[in-house]
Please model this.
Amino acid sequence: MSSIFLTGPAGTGKTTYAIDKVQQLLASHVPATDLLVIVPHLALAHPYRTALPKSDLPGAGDVEVVSLSGLALKMIDLFWPLIARPAGFGRPEARPIFLTIETAQYYLQQAIEPLLKQGYFDPNVVPVTISLSRLMVQILENLNKAAMLGLPYTQVAQRLAASLPDDPGRRVGLEHTQACINRFREFCLEHNLLDFSLRIETFYQHLWPVAGVRQFLTRRYRHLIVDNVEEDSTFTHAILQEWLPLTESALLINDEDAGFRTFLGANWRTAQALAEICDETIRMNDSYVASEAMLEFGQRIARVLVGQRPGSPLNGQLNSADQPVQSLKSGPSRRDQGRQNSLDGPEQAKFTNTAPPFTFEQKQFYPQMIEWVIDQIINLIEQGTPPAEIAIISPFVSDALRFALSHRLAQRGLSIQSHRPSRPLSEEPAAKAMLVLARLAFPHWELWPEPIDVAQTLAQVIGDLDLIRANLLAQVVYRPGTRTGEVLTPFEHIEGVVRERISDEIGVRFDQLRGWLQDIQANRPPNLDHFLSRLFGEVLSQPGFNFHEHGEAGQVVANLIDSARAFRQVVEQVPLNGQLHGPAQPIFPTVDQINRAYLETVQQGVTAGLYLRSWEPAPDDSILIIPASIFVMNNRVVDYQFWLDAGSNGWWENITQPLTHPYVLAADWEPGRPWTDADEVAAQHDRLYRLILGLTRRCRKHIFITNSETGEQGYEQRGPLLMVLQKTLRRAQKESEEQ
Model:
């Protein structure tokens, strides 16, 4: 065995090193089928899929790139007859059904609905104000974290209650959460449903221990490449601990000061422990992305954060850059001859003599901040900067922020692409319009959209139709409550002043859309994903409609179609309640039932699934608008970054999750140790520390930082990032005066 633990900051060429390693193996006649590339998230597979197409190398072929959970799915599907009955599934003779994020929420709601009707999470008993969609997400996160930790799912509430503040309301809330977890797991086992957590548990407890299964994997994949190991879970690290000694070669890649997916179960500390079983540790230091000045800027902010870190037991655990790798078995590599990017340099390192790598601008009001950002972007574009090399980064990207930026940039002839993966599909304007049209196409569902939703949909899809005229059109043509016949009346029936105000051109497009929907009603209802695909392709993407040459809307619609298809492919396999056992032939849901179930599920605001196209690089003619954490998680690199709302607390605060906890449900958290306020503040410092280093190491040229004294909601903004920036600037000014 020859194994390497390759570590270093982002941008130092570690993934390029791994791709070169794969190509060397292929050139040495190692078959592509013997190689396996493991990533924590399939979006991080893009560099490999781009750089490793089939070639004329002796071992060339399709190199498999997977997440370990994806590999577990394949193994369960392959060896299902072997483990179905021992694992406790209720229908071992039937095939497994793997749930997506959306379908997991759909069946979770079915499983816990009787409990909710009994008064579980009644606000009079549990003082937690939480929507059903957020409740389901936190229940699933508890299951997922327990599975990755190796904690029995029946002990989740006990583990949380032992560490979180003890009050009667929280205790009852955790008891209710545990009851929902237990009910959902029973439901999944009975119906052969495998959500993420059950997939992990089934693989780790029932397949990996089987000698024949382990030999099948380890003999098939003799060479491993594991990228971004710090963003993976304890489950992955436990598998690798046992797999690495059985490989012919292995390369593990670790990003220092990363671990951005902690809230999803990632554990960079158990990742670093893998270095101890590797033959060699190599550290790469030279950045091929950020300039010396940019790296220095990030380091100075990080030093301020390290100096401000409060006293807490977490202090010895949270940061790695000020605690370099303890054991470099190979000694320094040739790349160690270059500069050091960690924080172990001189405490009072001077800024370089080059121009500052950042610009800071303070404005009084939020609109002024937006206008300043627009002006700077226009200057960059006029200087020849490609739009794709500009990223607008904010702690959160609200609808108001996105609209303000997109509207003003559109006035200058520029387009944007936003990426908000946690945003429900039902809140995306393009998807919402498609769903409203689906409700109009199937009036027998009696899911009547509100008139304002119909007006907004018409304005969204019909070219050159503003909201005022769309509202007027909807008032005239929309007939809710009509189970059969015309839900939308023809435009040709409109006469007089109203017709003139709307215009015949708009009327022709409306009648084209209406006629298409009428044709759908006249035939047998299609699968909803087929309906959405045809609606987009045959009507809304054509000239005269707003989705024509609208890349982002097309991407949203494609995600919606994928979501509806995946939902159908799962739900059509599951017999209706009461039809699982007995001599009667099981009854499966009809197309119409599935269509309606999907529409109702999405309308509830369930968390969207993973759509890889949304994680791909933005088009060359689009400016990216993205939350800061998503930007670094996706490993994007741009020439210019704009940091908005520097005074917002969102730069370091985690989203409140009263029924789960990413740190307590972690492998290195001592069970029963209380989570204190000091721990919370230390974790917030750590999050901001990693975020700042992650952003600065992914910027080639310049960062524009701006803040408004009053934020989007009208409140004064004096968050920790702003305070740290001001302290960093004062230090820099003082050093400049001393020179």
Summary: The two ends are 54 Å apart (CA to CA). The chain is about 45% helix and 10% strand. The chain has four domains: 2-75+210-283, 104-195, 358-423+614-650+677-738, 425-604.
